[in-house]
Write a structure and sequence with these properties.
Structural class: alpha+beta
Shape: globular
Distance between the termini: 47 Å
Number of strands: 14
Radius of gyration: 20 Å
Oligomer: single chain
Order of helices and strands: HHEHHEHEEEEEEEEEEEE
Helix content: 10-25%
Largest sheet: 5 strands, mixed
Strand content: 35-45%
Number of helices: 5
Length: 240
C-alpha cells in the first residue's frame, strides 16, 4: 500500500505555486538578471486553457492558448507555449521549456492539468508589458460604461481610443491625456462583443498598446473556434 501511495505521489501534478516557482527558476537561469513577474491575467488564461483541454474543448495548440489569452488579458501580443508531458509530475520542469529563449518578455503566466488519457497539458503565456491599463471587466450588462485608464510605456505618446461594436462598426472615442497617463470612457451599447483598443505613437509609428474584449449581455465563448487539422508529433508550440 505504501509503495502504491508513493507511486501516485511521484506522478501527481505539481501545484500552481510549484509551476510558478519552476518557471521563474528557469527564466532566471536562461535570461540572466531580467526581471520577470507572474501575471494574474495571463495565469487565468493558461488555467482556463488547460481546463478546456482537459475536458476536450480545446486542442493542444498555440492558437487555442492565444484564444484564452484574448479573453482574459489586455496584452496586445502575448506569446503562447503549450506542450504535453508524461508523467504529470514533470509539469514544473516542462514549463521551463515553453517561454521564448529570446527572453524578450517581463510577464508570464503558467498552468497545467492532467489529461484523461494520461499525462498532462502544460501552458505558458508571456508578454512584454509596458503600458499599464486599469482592469476592465470582460463581461458587463448591456448599456453599462467602463473606464479606460492607464499610463503609456516610455517612448510612446498621443494615445487614441477605439471600440469595435458587435455590428463591426469602429468608433474613435474621446481620450484625455496628460503626459503618459490617459483616461476615457466606453459605453457598451449593443448586445454582443465590444473590442476596446488603445493605440499610441511609437518609434515605428502607430501601434496597439492595449486590447480588451468585453461581452455585453452575453457570455464569452467557452472554447476556441475550430482549427485546421495538423499533423502528428506535436511536442510543443509557440504562437503569437
Amino acid at each position: 500500500m505504501l509503495l502504491a501511495l508513493l507511486l501516485v505521489a511521484a506522478e501527481a501534478l505539481p501545484s500552481q505555486a510549484r509551476l510558478e516557482a519552476g518557471v521563474l527558476e528557469a527564466v532566471a537561469g536562461s535570461c540572466g538578471g531580467r526581471s520577470v513577474v507572474i501575471d494574474p491575467e495571463l495565469t487565468r488564461a493558461c488555467q482556463g486553457y488547460v481546463t478546456a483541454a482537459e475536458r476536450g474543448r480545446a486542442r493542444i495548440s498555440g492558437p487555442a492558448v492565444a484564444f484564452f489569452a484574448s479573453l482574459e488579458s489586455a496584452e496586445p501580443a502575448p506569446v503562447a507555449g503549450v506542450a504535453t508531458v508524461d508523467p504529470p509530475s514533470n509539469a514544473d520542469r516542462a514549463v521551463g521549456e515553453l517561454f521564448p529563449k529570446s527572453c524578450r518578455f517581463n510577464r508570464i503566466g503558467v498552468g497545467a492539468a492532467a489529461l484523461p488519457e494520461g499525462g498532462a497539458v502544460v501552458c505558458a503565456l508571456t508578454a512584454v508589458h509596458g503600458t499599464d491599463l486599469e482592469p476592465i471587466p470582460g463581461r458587463l450588462e448591456e448599456g453599462r460604461s467602463v473606464r479606460v485608464a492607464g499610463a503609456l510605456a516610455p517612448g510612446l505618446s498621443s494615445p487614441r481610443l477605439f471600440v469595435t461594436r458587435p455590428s463591426g462598426q469602429v468608433e474613435e472615442l474621446k481620450l484625455q491625456a496628460a503626459g503618459p497617463r490617459f483616461l476615457g470612457t466606453v459605453s457598451v451599447k449593443g448586445r454582443g462583443e465590444h473590442s476596446i483598443e488603445v493605440l499610441a505613437e511609437g518609434p515605428g509609428g502607430p501601434q496597439v498598446v492595449a486590447m480588451r474584449r468585453v461581452f455585453a449581455g452575453v457570455a464569452p465563448p467557452s472554447q476556441p473556434p475550430p482549427e485546421p487539422a495538423q499533423g502528428g508529433g506535436l511536442a510543443g508550440v509557440e504562437a503569437a
